[in-house]
Write a structure and sequence with these properties.
Layout (H helix, E strand, L loop, with lengths): L1 H34 L2 E3 L12 H12 L5 E7 L3 H15 L5 E5 L6 H10 L1 H4 L10 H14 L5 H7 L7 H8 L7 E3 L2 E3 L5 E8 L6 H19 L9 E5 L1 H34 L3 H26 L1 E3 H24 L9 H11 L1 H16 L7 H23 L1 H4 L10 H14 L3 H17 L17 H14 L6 E7 L2 H21 L4 E3 L1 H4 L3 H9 L4 H12 L12 H11 L13 H9 E4 L2 E9 L18 H10 L6 E4 H35 L2 H24 L6 H21 L22 H18 L8 H24 L7 H4 L12
Parallel strand pairs: 1-8
Antiparallel strand pairs: 2-6, 2-7, 3-6, 4-5, 9-12, 9-13, 10-12, 11-12
Helix pairs in contact: 1-11, 2-27, 3-9, 6-23, 9-10, 10-12, 10-30, 11-12, 11-15, 12-15, 12-30, 14-15, 14-27, 14-29, 17-30, 17-31, 18-28, 20-26, 27-28, 27-29, 28-29, 28-31, 29-31, 30-31
Length: 839
């Protein structure tokens, strides 16, 4: 026998080293994958996928649209003159900065250029240029209208333009430009309505989803403010306020980074502190964290390989993985602890594997089923979280089972928890008395859910907004002051070329104009107003008669006017028309430097070879009301859709961005409800396959369902609408709580009968098992519960849901656990082989 043992020793040593070697190779592979990963905090990963054309447009606008590039700057404090001086200084600096495509503060910096551009290209831009207008009758009528203007408030300007523009094309162009009310002015710059803030609106070159570009632009604005205020004593009391999607994205990224770092450190410190109370040596503590580190590495490597980019929120979710992954080593060390040294460490761990590992493995698989539902979410960020958690938990459990038993030759140093276990055993035995209060709590939870069923779910995508309420209020106030563009309603025309998109926009505009005339629309803007299509430009040029014909017609038009004018006065007009007839067509680059060029850049875009022309629509204000916020306006959608369809433009879409956002979100809420139910069904099937006992399956699931009901009812009572993230959290309560319920519903087999003859059929939880469950629960709550302190709603929702839910799952599992005979309590402490009696 001795020979056999000696010869087997090298073999056992080889078998012991092999899992460790494979684990080390696995970690090296994970390190290589993580090193190649790109880490980001771009919240567009948490925008839903867009299945329809309207919804794709919505997501594109949120990521790269003009509204995503606007930063509203406010200067507060000091007096009006000081604020105006700072506004001038900031604007002058930023206009020289290539990170900005426009800087507006009310100064007429482009006015002269705009006026010259409009005047020089009036015959290409004016919608009034038609063959009829340049006939003898048309010229007579147009000249009569221009002469009538001489006696109006615009008479001075009309008199100056009359010799060169008797048909009033400049007036027609200005009239069609959809000018909204300009902000108030004070000392030559834009100011708030109450006069207490100076305002600027800047448009960045970088997209709103490019947080690095937005951060650089924000830094440039702050630097410009500091430079403008330098050396001015009166500016010491002035402050800079910034708002806009880019500002929010940068602030959110920084918040995510700060929360991830802070919560990870606090969570790790709490878990390490808890484990130090349980373990008696730093070595045992280090071994206990090995599965956690392995799980984090495996999760990050999987996300890196699958997506190429790892989101900051995925790292933040890693704090929860610490709390659950550490449970496995807690079970191993505490449940296999040998304080009387009566059994070798290797034998104790083998006994633990044979007796407890199947239960722990089943609990891990239920957690994986819960996280698996996230893989099919319409939110790419949630798919990352699901993959990260599944792989991380599976890796942590595998390392606990196959690696930890081979990393040390001595038994882990664990404090004697038998006294704690005895107290918990007595508490668990008494928990059955709480079944009636538990039933009352369930009735109350169901009643609360029934009373609040109509307000239970949030139906707006904005419910996922990470922007604090104070920031949203400031943004609304500043937008109201500057009259920021309302891009809620759009008509989008797609085309294979720039000209195709412009021609489609012109056809749509012809159908929308009658709606403006009837008051159905307050107005609309189109890129074709500033850059007509080539076909329209050629048609307008063809309407201009040759110089000799025009001169003859003007002589006829001058006759019989109410105000006598000599025909020779209009010689400049005839010369300008002849010049326009021979001029090249207007091109996009001709608009560069004008405010109209900025409008075209915003409304006419090209992406992946496809051109889009966007017509932004303005809803009419309610009678007697000021211009309402964008999210409170409404249009007659049927009238717009009918007009768009009547234009006959293939692929033209009318989009209500807010409605599409909310519809998209609601669709994914229902989808995730179905996915969660599918995940729950997978857990039920898994339990049936593993336990093969319907009563044990029901007794395992009931406390978990109860925990979900109580947490949901609490949200309803506090008027906190549930989002997709709460839904995922509720499923995780089931997935994580199943670990506790399974232990409370384990069947003791023959090996578990103690030396005093306790019946194997008696169902009771051994004291050390109870101690391990309590410590594991505290570790899980330290991981999940801390997320409730996050300023990021996506993390906070998980914390507020799973933290309390995990506690309730453990408590309800104890209350509803099958009762063992009363005599079993005094003998339960021997339920773990080799453990000395303590009760």
């Amino acid at each position: 026998m001795a020979h056999r043992s000696d010869s087997g020793s090298p073999r056992r040593a080889l078998l012991r080293r092999r899992p460790v070697q494979l684990w080390l190779l696995f970690l090296i592979g994970c390190a290589i994958a993580i090193q190649r990963a790109h880490f980001t905090a771009d919240l567009s990963a948490f925008l839903p996928r867009a299945p329809s054309a309207q919804q794709r447009l919505l997501v594109d606008q949120l990521r790269e649209g003009v509204i995503s590039r606007l930063i509203i700057v406010a200067i507060v404090g000091g007096d009006a003159a000081t604020r105006a001086e700072l506004s001038h200084g900031i604007a002058a600096t930023l206009r020289r900065d290539l990170r900005f495509v426009s800087v507006n503060n009310g100064e007429p910096v482009t006015q002269a250029l705009d006026e010259r551009f409009v005047f020089e290209h009036r015959y290409l831009l004016s919608p009034a240029v038609t063959p009829q207008r340049f006939s003898a009758e048309g010229l007579h009528s147009a000249l009569g209208e221009s002469l009538d203007l001489l006696s109006s408030s615009a008479g001075l300007m009309s008199k100056a333009l009359l010799p060169r523009d008797p048909t009033g094309e400049v007036t027609a162009i200005v009239g069609q430009f959809d000018g909204e009310a300009q902000p108030a002015s004070a000392d030559g710059v834009w100011a708030s309505r109450d006069g207490k803030r100076a305002l600027l609106v800047v448009q960045t070159a970088g997209a709103g989803s490019d947080t690095d570009a937005q951060e650089s632009a924000i830094a440039a604005v702050r630097a410009a403010f500091d430079a403008a205020a330098h050396g001015k004593p009166t500016a010491s009391s002035c402050r800079l306020l910034l708002t806009g999607p880019g500002v929010f994205s940068v602030e959110t990224r920084d918040t995510i980074k700060h929360d991830v770092e802070k919560l990870s450190i606090i969570s790790l410190a709490l878990i390490v502190g808890l484990l130090l109370l349980v373990y008696r040596s730093p070595l045992t503590l280090a071994l206990g964290l090995v599965p956690v580190a392995s799980g984090v590495a495996a999760g990050l490597a999987a996300v890196s390989l699958a997506f190429g980019t790892v989101h900051g929120l995925t790292l933040g979710f890693g704090t929860t993985l610490i709390g659950e992954a550490v449970d496995y080593s807690i079970y191993l060390f505490i449940q296999s602890a040998r304080h009387d040294k009566s059994e070798a460490s290797g034998d104790a761990m083998r006994a633990w594997i044979a007796r407890y590992w199947p239960t722990i493995r089943l609990g891990m698989l239920t957690s994986v089923c819960g996280f698996a539902s996230m893989l099919f979410s319409g939110f790419p960020g949630l798919v990352q979280l699901g993959l990260y958690s599944m792989v991380g938990l599976a890796a942590a459990a595998a390392v606990t089972r196959y690696v930890l038993p081979h990393l040390g030759t001595r038994a882990p140093a664990v404090r004697d928890l038998s006294r704690l276990g005895t107290l918990l055993a007595r508490a668990a035995d008494a928990a059955g008395r709480l079944r009636w209060p538990f039933a009352a709590l369930m009735i109350g939870a169901v009643a609360a859910l029934a009373l609040h069923r109509g307000q239970l779910w949030s139906h707006e995508l904005s419910s996922l907004s990470p922007v604090p309420a104070s920031s949203q209020a400031l943004d609304a106030a500043l937008r109201a002051d500057v009259g920021a563009p309302d891009v809620r309603y759009l008509v989008v025309v797609s085309g294979a070329s720039e000209q195709a998109a412009l021609e489609g926009a012109e056809k749509i505009a012809m159908r929308l104009q009658p709606l403006v005339d009837s008051g159905t629309l307050a107005g609309f803007d189109s890129p074709a107003r500033y850059l007509p299509s080539d076909a329209t430009q050629r048609a307008r040029l063809a309407s201009l008669p040759p110089a000799d014909v025009l001169e003859a017609r003007m002589r006829s038009a001058v006759a019989n006017q109410t105000i006598g004018v000599k025909p020779d006065v209009f010689a400049p007009f005839v010369a300008d028309v002849e010049k326009a007839r021979n001029a090249p067509l207007l091109r996009r680059e001709d608009l560069r430097g004008t405010s109209m060029g900025l409008a075209v850049d915003a409304l006419l875009t090209e992406r992946d070879g496809q051109w889009q022309a966007m017509l932004s629509l303005r809803a009419p204000a309610k009678p007697g009301a000021a211009a309402p916020p964008a999210n409170e306006t409404s249009l007659d959608a049927h009238a717009i859709e009918t007009a768009v369809a009547g234009a006959g433009v293939t692929g033209a879409l009318f989009v209500d961005l807010k409605k599409e956002a909310d519809d998209l979100y609601v669709n994914y809420v229902y989808e995730d409800i179905r996915l969660s139910l599918a995940g729950f069904a997978a857990i039920v099937v898994l339990l049936f396959v593993a336990l093969r006992d319907p009563r044990r399956v029901v007794s395992t699931l009931v406390p978990l369902i109860a925990a979900v009901l109580v947490v949901t009812a609490a949200f309803a009572l506090f008027h906190e609408p549930l989002t997709i993230l709460h839904l995922i959290g509720l499923l995780l309560i089931v997935a994580i709580g199943s670990n506790y319920a399974l232990f409370f519903n384990r069947r003791n087999d023959a090996s578990s009968a103690d030396s005093t003859g306790t019946s194997p059929a008696a169902r009771t939880v051994a004291p050390l098992t109870l101690a391990s469950l309590l410590i594991a629960n505290l570790a899980t709550v330290a991981g999940f519960g801390l997320l409730a302190l996050s300023h990021v709603p996506m993390l906070e929702s998980f914390g507020l849901t799973v933290g309390p839910g995990a506690i309730l799952a453990l408590l309800f599992s104890a209350i509803l656990a099958p009762r063992a005979p009363h005599t079993a309590l005094s003998r339960a402490t021997t339920d773990e082989p080799g453990q000395r009696k303590t009760a």
